[in-house]
Amino acid sequence: MAHDARTRPLPGPIAGEPDADVDDGAFVGIDLVLEKLWRLLTSMRFALVLILALAVLGLIGTLVIQAPAGVLADPTAKADWIDQIRPKYGGWTNVMDTLGVFQIFDSIWFRVIAAALVISTTACSLHRIPGMWKTATKPHVGVGEAFFTHAPQRDSVRLDAAPAAALERVAATFRRHHYRTIVEDDGWSMWESNAITRYLAARHAPGTLYPNDLRQRASAERWMDWQLTTLGPAFTPMFHGLVRTPPEKRDAQAIEKSRANTETKLEIMDSYLAKSKFMAGEQFSFGDIVIGIGIVDICFEASRRPRRRGAYLPEAGSSATA
To answer: Are 270 and 309 in contact (CB under 8 A)?
Structure first.
């Protein structure tokens, strides 16, 4: 048997139940006050005002004689001390005493402003943490041409090379200066220049820059990793010493040690290239890109460059340009 029961609102509020309209209004008012307070505490202008106020109080405390420790706790001693400084400040003495000018660093004004500054600094830091975290973990890389056109610090360079080679050259330059490079492709982004080179070669040049043969591909990856773990660390001290250090602060011994270490590592590559046209065999690949860029950036004197390495670079450059 079906039973249909319907109810209707009771007339008037239930005894003991709070008035919803009144509570909603009260909560809205509290939320509004808290929101305004939060905006004030996270305001950079408010923090600057507090810093300026503390600076002014500190200046007053430096220029005006401050009561010695223990005097203020003893009314008699305080009265005697006030009488001693009265000739200096005249009729302003009692006013300054009432305002706490003679005890600036122990005054309620100084303590309140200092506490407000600490709270404001903490609130500003907490307020900016989400944005800073987002910027660090998910940087905004999708920008239009107008961003580069109007950027205050910008430059352009034309590279006569394949896209993957040009990108690796730029990424390697930024990496040496401790920048992280990110590539974006159809809304998907990644970083680490070697990984970017592998990705672009596989996407845009399969079978050429990215060999289909697994052994050739493994050989290219081997030399790419060798450049990162062996050649790069050997060359970096010399690069920093000659390029990023003023002449008067250079460590000649460390530079020479790095140069000799780099030459030793390059001899390994030279012995391999004596038997192979490119790093992965007879075909130019992504392994040659990172190796070639590393070699170009190593500024040896012409007399110190091994013949095999000098012959290798033009071949790699012409292949990349083609």
So the answer is: yes
Tokens of 193: 């220049």
Q: Report the DSSP beta bridge partners of residue 182.
A: 191
**210: which strand partners?**
206
Same domain, 113 and 204: no
Considering the domain architecture, whether residues 243 and 203 belong to the same structural domain is answered as yes
The answer to whether 250 touches 241, Cβ cutoff 8 Å, is: yes
Q: At residue 201, what are phi and psi to the nearest 5 degrees?
A: -65, -40
* Strand ranges in the chain using DSSP code E only, listed in sequence order: 182-185, 188-191
Task: Give the pLDDT band of residue 49 (cuts 50, 70, 90).
Answer: very high
How many structural domains does the chain have?
A: 2
pLDDT at residue 292, as a whole number: 80
| pLDDT surpassing 90 at residue 52 | yes
Indicate if 123 and 187 belong to the same structural domain. no
Integer Cα distance of 96 and 104 in angstroms: 10
Structure tokens at 223: 């030399």
pLDDT tens per residue across span 55-77: 998 898 888 888 887 787 788 88
Tokens 């011994």 belong to residue: 253
Question: What span, in angstroms and rounded, lies between the C-alpha atoms of 34 and 46?
Answer: 16
Which DSSP symbol is given to 101?
Answer: G
